[in-house]
Amino acid sequence: MTESAAKKLPRIVVNEKLCKGCSICVDFCPTDVLEMKGSIAAVKNLAACTRCQLCDLRCPDFAIQVFD
C-alpha cells in the first residue's frame, strides 16, 4: 500500500490552558476518540476519528480543534 492510499489521520489539538474538564467533547464523540486524563481532555484513539468535529463544535471553551 502506498502512502497516499493509507488513511491520513487528522490532528486533534487540546489547548490545556482553555480546557476546564467538563468532558462534553468526550461525551459527544461517537467513536470514543477522546478520554479524560485527570481534568483535561486527551486523545486516546486517533485512528477511530471520523472528523465529525462534534468535539470541536460542542466545546464551550474552544479548547479543542480538529484539523484534516
Concise account of the structure shown:
This protein has 68 residues and is α+β, with helices and mostly antiparallel strands. The protein has two helices and four strands; from the N terminus they run βαββαβ. The protein is globular.
Provide structural commentary:
It is a single chain. With about 70 residues, the chain is an alpha+beta fold. It has a single domain (about 10-65), classed as Alpha-Beta Plaits (2-Layer Sandwich). Helices cover about 15% and strands about 25% of the residues. It has two helices and four strands. The strands form two sheets. Strands 1-4 form a two-stranded antiparallel ribbon. A hairpin with a 2-residue loop joins strand 2 (about 35) and strand 3. The longest helix is centred in the middle third of the chain and has 5 residues, at about 25-30. The radius of gyration is 12 Å and the shape is globular. The mean pLDDT is about 95.
